[in-house]
Amino acid sequence: MSEHILLRHRDIADIDQLEVYRQHGGFEAFRKALGAMQPGEVIQVVKDSGLRGRGGAGFPTGMKWGFCPNTIWPHYVVANADESEPGTFKDREIMESNPFQFLEGLMIAAYAIQANAAYIYLRGEYWQIAKLLDEKIADLQAAGLLGDAILGSRYSLRLYTHLGAGAYICGEETALLESLEGKLGQPRLRPPFPAVAGLYARPTVINNVETLANVPPIIHNGAAWYRDFGSDKSPGIKVFSLSGNVNRPGNYELPLGATFRELIYEHGGGIPGGRAIKAIMAAGASSALIPADDAALDTPMDYEALVGLGASLGSASVIVLDETVNMAWLAQKTTHFFKHESCGKCTPCREGTYWMVHILDRIIAGKAEEADIDLLNSVASQMQNKCLCALGEFSILPVISTVAKFRADYLAKVAAPLTEPQRP
Amino acid sequence: MNALRDQYGQEIDRILAKYPAEWKRSAVMPLLYLAQRAEGYITARALRDIAEICEISITDVASIVGFYTLYYDQPLGRYHIQVCTDLPCALRGAEEFLAQLSQKLGIQPGQTSTDGLFHLEQVMCLGACHRAPVFQVQGDGEIVFHENQSVETALAVIEALREHARQETGGAA
């Protein structure tokens, strides 16, 4: 893309400074919303834009905002900056390098649901970013863009950062709310949904950082402008985090619907050593593996097309696997992650991830029989649709998909003889 | 008597002001960070002080310490060297990096150096997959990322921390 819409710091130097951001149209959208639009109108524009949640679930953002009942007060907005999915590092770049666009989006969201306080929940590892955001929030207060009677209106708003402390599960929105309330980060049963009873049992909107960064340009340029990017059902732009066996890993801002081939070969520079590509994970560790044949490489990366591949776009965290990667090893890596991060609240996830790790470790150690592959698949299948939240459901995707599509990789490990200790 | 409040009264008030007055419990995580910055880990005393400030039980505070990985209930070295070896990092050589670093430092992941300065840990995703090998240093109340690392650059970072600690001791003596 010639000019970035989200990663604007790549085009404009020092846009992380308030005066530079404002020189380039910053806070005009917030001023427009506050001065010339009713909250309901703001929600309508976001609805019309077709913006969908960029954290993974892809839920329509405007619709989410519209769910907050006007009979229960106060309302809260929480920015989900708990970015912890292996393969995802996009929110970090937005917050580090273009922080005001994210903050402006958060402020517009707060105005739209008439919240007077908003929290930014960052993973604990993003301590440096929290410190930076605290400074930016202080800049906004000093400039009269936060606080009481903002820009001469009757609206008041305060932003607060809150650090997690190393728990992937807190990216799940109800676990995040529990954590923000000072409890263990364990998901809540739904209903009630956060839009009705969220933070402190009050109506709460929780949006991903990237989702919020989309809001200022949408309010500024209008819904129709945004729909010029991407496809009808997946309009707009997306930051793709590209990692794994690729020459130029990094974040790439592209319209939704760009192909894997374009991302991996044009932008990412292809596979190191000219090796062949074997498979793709599109949603970080939480992915069903996509065998990387020509049809897959030419698939547009949007919410609908990936479902056709038996996968999902998630947070668009594309991990490239080349021909040297054994998929049983890969499943062992991802399953260890999910076992470690399982919160322990529901039995299928707590026990299931434990047993999957147990079997996978045996397979990778060369101590398994072929029947263990089916045992593994059986454990994974029994977890399906039984977990309290998406973490448990995600944990089985790499397992079931690699057993189904790369069984030979498992057989290679099963057939491998026990490794004898080396003698001098 | 609340030692934490006596020592950090203003900072504690700033933290509590972020949350509704009836939700002091929300301050438990920032207060744990505050206590850990002071002591290097969460002491029994800090559990008691935080429980009192947040108006929750000591057990509630202890459960938070146990649940989240960035809190420690025992002294494990001043600087925690936390290396990510999750899938995207592993594809960029992070496992080999950790093995070599471990060998050079003479401590296994999960162990602390004999001088009590460094604790080596294998951790989950740090959100820097494109710049692996990557590690973070957690210590002195801060968490600092080090990206695109080699064993040599990592050892240089560690040596600088060692020097920092040595100068502090020298200054105190």
- Order of strands in the sheet with most strands of chain B: 2-1-3-4
Unreliable stretches covering 5 or more consecutive residues of chain B = none
Global outline of chain B: elongated
Strand count of chain B: 4
Distance N to C terminus of chain A = 58 Å
Q: What share of the residues of chain B lie within helices?
A: 40-55%
Oligomer: heterodimer
Mean pLDDT of chain A equals: 95
Shape verdict of chain A: globular
Element-by-element helix/strand order of chain A: HHHHEHHEHEHEHHEEHEEHHEHHHHHH
What is the percentage of strand-forming residues of chain A? 5-15%
3D architecture notes:
The complex is a heterodimer of chains A (424) and B (173). Chain A is an alpha/beta fold and 424 residues long. Chain A has 19 helices and nine strands. Chain A has helices at 18-23, 28-36, 39-49, 61-66, 90-97, 99-112, 127-142, 173-180, 209-221, 223-227, 260-267, 294-297, 303-308, 327-341, 347-364, 370-383, 390-395, 397-405, 407-415, and strands at 76-81, 117-122, 158-163, 204-208, 237-244, 250-255, 277-281, 290-291, 317-322. In chain A, a hairpin with an 8-residue loop joins strand 7 and strand 8 (290-291). In chain A, helix 3 packs across helix 6 (99-112) and helix 14 packs antiparallel against helix 18. The mean pLDDT of chain A is 95. With 173 residues, chain B is an alpha+beta fold. Chain B is built from seven helices and four strands, in the order H-H-H-H-E-H-H-E-E-E-H. Chain B has helices spanning 3-16, 28-39, 44-54, 58-67, 87-90, 94-105, 151-172; strands at 79-84, 118-123, 135-139, 142-146. Chain B has a four-stranded mixed sheet, covered by helices on one side. In chain B, helix 2 packs antiparallel against helix 3 and helix 3 packs across helix 4. The longest helix of chain B is centred in the C-terminal third of the chain and has 22 residues, at 151-172. The model of chain B has no long low-confidence stretch (mean pLDDT 95).
